[in-house]
Amino acid sequence: MLEIKGTADESPRGLQITKEIEDLEVDEGDPATLEVCFVSDAPTTVTWVKDMQPLEEGRRIKIITDDNSSRMVIKKTIGKDEGLYQCTLQSGERVLSNSAELIVEGM
User: What distance separates the 2 farthest-apart alpha carbons in the chain?
Assistant: First the structure.
């Protein structure tokens, strides 16, 4: 799901999502990666949340962001990783949000 906030007269080329994150189903214990790709002509802030709560990085969960993509990687999934993940991109006044569901199947 893609959500766009900003005024109608803004240039759509300022910030665009080129690849949305997609729903993912994995077996418990397997790794999981959600990735969003984007283009921006200005610095972009990237924020990841799970079930509307800020996502905390740790030994199992890493967020890797470069100039054109951001990946949320779970090294070894557990049941509580299941939920709705949202990535929000902000460049100037333009804000784009993209979300996907992660389903973790029990062993």
Answer: 51
Burial group, residue 86, by CB count within 10 angstroms (0-12, 13-18, 19+): buried
3-state secondary structure of 81: helix
Structure token pair of residue 40: 């921006």
Q: Which tokens is 3 given? A: 């959500």
Tens of pLDDT, residue by residue over 37-76, are 999 989 999 999 999 999 989 999 999 999 999 999 999 9
Do residues 98 and 44 make contact, with C-beta atoms less than 8 angstroms apart?
Answer: no
Q: How far apart are CA 104 and CA 24, in angstroms?
A: 9
Going by the DSSP 8-state scheme, the letter that residue 26 receives in this structure is E
C-alpha to C-alpha distance for 50 and 104, rounded to whole angstroms: 14
The pTM for the full model equals: 0.85
